[in-house]
Design goal:
2 copies of one chain form a homodimer. In chain A, 35% of the residues lie in helices and 26% in strands. Chain A is of the alpha/beta class and 446 residues long. In chain A, strands 7, 8, 9, 10, 11, 12, 13, 14, 15, 16 and 17 form an 11-stranded mixed sheet that branches. In chain A, helix 4 (88-97) runs parallel beside helix 5, helix 5 runs parallel beside helix 10 (202-216) and helix 7 (162-174) packs across helix 8. Chains A and B meet through helix 2, helix 6, strand 12 and helix 12 of A and helix 2, helix 6, strand 12 and helix 12 of B. Chains A, B: Belongs to the homoserine dehydrogenase family.
Amino acid sequence: MTTTHEPLKIALLGAGNVGSQVARILTEDAEMLQARVGARLELVGVFVRRTDAEREYQLPGELYTTDAEALVDQADIVIELLGGIEPAKSLIQRAISRGAAVVTGNKALLAQHGSELYRAAAEAGTQLSFEASVAGAIPILRPLRDSLSGDRVTRIMGIANGTTNYILDQMDTTGATFDDALAEAQRLGYAEADPTADVEGHDAAAKAAILANLAFHAPFTLDQVHCEGITAITAADNEAAAEAGYVIKLLAIAERITTPGGDGADSTEGAVLRVHPTLLPRQHPLAAVHGAFNAVFVEAENAGELMFYGPGAGGAPTASAVMGDTVSIARRLVRGGPGRTHTPQATLPALPVGDATTSYLVVLEVKDQAGVLAQTAGVFAQHGVSIEAMRQVPLPEGHSGHAEAESSLRFITHRALERDLEQTVAELTALDVVTDVISVLRVEGN
Amino acid sequence: MTTTHEPLKIALLGAGNVGSQVARILTEDAEMLQARVGARLELVGVFVRRTDAEREYQLPGELYTTDAEALVDQADIVIELLGGIEPAKSLIQRAISRGAAVVTGNKALLAQHGSELYRAAAEAGTQLSFEASVAGAIPILRPLRDSLSGDRVTRIMGIANGTTNYILDQMDTTGATFDDALAEAQRLGYAEADPTADVEGHDAAAKAAILANLAFHAPFTLDQVHCEGITAITAADNEAAAEAGYVIKLLAIAERITTPGGDGADSTEGAVLRVHPTLLPRQHPLAAVHGAFNAVFVEAENAGELMFYGPGAGGAPTASAVMGDTVSIARRLVRGGPGRTHTPQATLPALPVGDATTSYLVVLEVKDQAGVLAQTAGVFAQHGVSIEAMRQVPLPEGHSGHAEAESSLRFITHRALERDLEQTVAELTALDVVTDVISVLRVEGN
C-alpha cells in the first residue's frame, strides 16, 4: 500500500517487559503496521531512567532518553508504560494538553485518577486508550465500550489476576498449601518477590474499578472496591469447596443492583464492586480458566452470558493490546475525525458491599449433641437467610477438632443480602454448640 | 443528558426474531440509548412483507411498510435483518449510495458479496457494520478489527454454529445417535425443520469466510471454504474420540500458512479455510463450550491464545450485537468524522485444503494376522506421516465386524500435510488386511 500521509511520531515511556515488546513490534512489524494504518509509525524515542541499561529488545542507542518532557512534546501518540502514579500522570496530562493521543497500560493510575484523565482527553479532543490495563491481551475495552453499547451490562466477574489464579489452581489440582503454591508461582516468575499486591487482591481491585467504569458507563475508583485477598484460603476451604462441587477463584465482581428499600428507605440503584475468593460451580465457564490465564465473564440484559479469555499478563501479550490501541488511534489520525475516549456519561453510586446479594458456603465444627442442627438453622432463619442445602460432613483432614466436636455441618445458602449473611455468621460463631468456623466462602454462578 | 443533536433516523428491514427484539430495544431503552449516543434514535419504519402479521413485539401499526425503498431513502442508519441475497443486497447498496450507514446480520450476503459491499461503503464514506453476522452476541468484529490490529492473527477456530454444537454435545454427553440428537434439537427449537444448512456445515462455512476476512485483513468468500458437515459422525467416532481423550466439535478454521515449496515450487503464503468435525483435547477451552453456545478461539503472534464465548443465536442476543453496531455508528454521526468500514488492505490467496497441516485419528478394523501393524504403519511412513500413538482397541460396540476381523487399530498421527494424510487413508483402505475404516477424524489443539 502506498501512503501519502506523513509518519506518525510515537513516544514510548518505559522500556521494561512490555515496553521492550512494543519497541520490537514497532520495529519488526513496521511494514504490516504501515499497511494497516496508512502511515508509518515512527518511534521517535524511549524514555528510560538509565540510557545504558541492558534491554530485552535493544534499539539504537540514540533513541533512549532521560528527558521525558521533550520526548512527549514531539509525539503524536504517547505510549505510557511506566506504571505507578508519578511521573506517569503528569506526562499523560502534558501529552493530552498538547493534543497528543495517549495509550496506557497503567491500571493503578486509571483506577485512582481515570475519570480526571478521560475528561481531560475528551476536552482536549484527543484520545486515551487503555486496553492493556485490564486482563493483558484480552480485548475487553472495545467489547464493553462499543460492542455492548446498545445493551445493559448487569454484572461482570473477572479472573483478573493471573498470579492468584495460578496459586488457587495449584491448590485445587495438586492439593498444595497456599505457601507452597506461592513459592512455586515465584519460582516460575508468575509471582513477584513481594506478592502483596497480587495475593491481597489490590491488583484485581484496580481492575474491578476500570471494568466497572467501562461496563456501567459511570466513574468508579479503587477506594470503592471491597477487597479481600486469598492469603486466608486453607486446605479445609479447598476440601469443602471440592466436596460441594465448587472451585475457588479470586473474582473481581462489579454488579448493578437495586437496594431493597423498605422501612421508610427508598430503593437505590447503584453498583457494588468487590474482590474476594469465590466458589464457582465446576461447570461454570470461569471454572475452566486454569493457570495464569485471565477471563472476564459478562452478563448483559440482551446478550446474555459472554466470556473473554486469554493471557492476563506477559510482555508480548500486553504489547499486543498496546499496539491494538496504537493502531486504532493512528488510523483515526490518518482518516481524520475527532478523537474519542471512554467518558462515562452516567452516574451510578457505588454502594457498600453489605447491599450486595450473594450466597455463602459455611462449614461449622459443632459439638456432637442433640439440637445442634435446629439451633444453627434457627440463626439463619432469624436473619432471613434461607438454606439451600445442609450436609453433615466429616471434619476436614488435619483439622484437630475440639474435645467435644465430632462432626461438622456444611450449609449452602440461597442468595441473600451480604449484610444479613455476615450477621448470621457472626451469630453462629458465638453459639455455644459451634466450636469452630471452618470455612465461610461466597458462592456465585449458581 | 441534554442533547442538541437532531434525532437519527433508523430504518429497520425485517421484523422477525431478531428484528422484533431490535424494535423492542429501540423503544424500551430509548432513554439509555439517547444518553449514550447524544441524540435520539428514531425508528422511522419497519419493512415487512405483510403489515398485518402478528409480531413478537408489536409497534404502532403505521410504522410497518411494504415500501422498502422509500423507507431506506429517509434513514441515517439502515438495519438489514432480512437474510438471503435479495432484496437485502440491493437495499444495502441503495442505502450506501445515499450515504446512509448500514448494520447487517446477513452472513450469507457477506460471505458471498462482502468485499464488494465493504468497498462500496468505504468509497461512499459511510459505514457497514456486521457484528451480528458471526457468533450472535459474541463481540468479535471489534476485537479482530481493532483490538488485534497491531498483531498478526495466525489462526481462528470457531464453534460458529449452535445447532451442530448442541447435537454433538448431546451425542457426547448422552450417547445419543445423530438422528436422536437432531430430533431433540428440533424439538427445542435449536434446529430448523430442514436442518441442511446447519448440519452440512454451510452456515459455519459462511462464518469462516467472514472471520477470515476480519482476521487476515484480506477478502475471502464462501466458495473458498472446504466444508464437511456432521451427518456422517457415528457412535463409533464418538467412542473412539472419548477413548483417546478427545471431544468432537464442528469447527470453522481459518489459518495463515506457508506451503512447504520444494521440488522446484516456491513456497506460498496463504490462508486455508475449512469447516469439518474436529477432535479437541478435553482440556482445550473450546471443549468446554456446551449446548448451543458459540465460541471463537484466536491465536495471534503476540497476544497468544484468546477465546470469545457466548450465545451464538437467539433474538435478544443477536439484537444486542445489532444495537452495539447501531450505537457505535450513531456516536460517530453525532461526533462527526468519516465513517469506517472494515476494508481488507492485504491480499492473501486462499489455498486448497490439501495444503493445510493437521493430524488425524484413524481407526481401522483389521484382520487378526501377523504383520498387520508393520504393514499399516508402513503406509503411514511411505507418505511421510509420522505416528504419535498407536493402540490396539476393542471393536466398537455394535460394530458387526467382518468374519476374519478380531481387533481394530487406532492411530493418532503427528501434524502432516492434509493431502498426505488423505492419500495415506486411501491406501490403508485398499490394504487386504484392513477390513474396514471405522473412523477418520482430524485433530486440532494438541
